[in-house]
Write a structure and sequence with these properties.
six-stranded antiparallel sheet, 1 helix
C-alpha cells in the first residue's frame, strides 16, 4: 500500500492510495476537491489487466466515504482527511468490498 499526495495538472491537491485485494482487483482511495468545492474521499475498485486498471461503471464498487467543506484545500488538509479515512475506515471498506463482490458471484 503506497500513498501519495500531489498536485494534478489543474494544480489541485490529490491524495491517492492503492490497495491490492487479490483476484486482480485494486482498491483505490482518492481524496480531492469536487466540482462543488467539497473535499471528497472516494473509493473505487478496478480490475488490473496487463498493468492497466479498468473500472466498470455500474458494475464495480464505487462509494464516497468522507465529504467535508474546509475553508481551503491545502496539502495538509488533503493529507489529514485521506490518512483519517485510511486509519479509521480501511478495514470497514475492505469488508464491504468483499461482501459486494461475493453478492455479485452469488447472484
Amino acid at each position: 500500500m503506497i500513498t501519495r499526495v500531489y498536485k494534478n495538472y489543474h494544480k489541485q491537491w490529490i491524495g491517492e492510495t492503492n490497495v491490492e485485494l487479490g483476484d486482480n482487483r485494486v482498491l483505490r482511495i482518492s481524496t480531492s476537491k469536487s466540482v462543488r468545492g467539497l473535499l471528497n474521499t472516494n473509493v473505487t475498485v478496478s480490475i488490473r489487466e496487463n498493468d492497466l486498471l479498468s473500472h466498470r461503471v455500474y458494475v464495480d464498487y464505487c462509494k464516497t466515504v468522507e465529504s467535508t467543506n474546509p475553508n481551503r484545500i491545502t496539502e495538509k488538509v488533503v493529507s489529514a482527511q485521506h490518512n483519517k479515512v485510511i486509519g479509521e475506515k480501511l478495514g470497514e471498506i475492505t469488508n464491504e468490498v468483499i461482501e459486494f463482490y461475493q453478492a455479485l458471484v452469488e447472484a
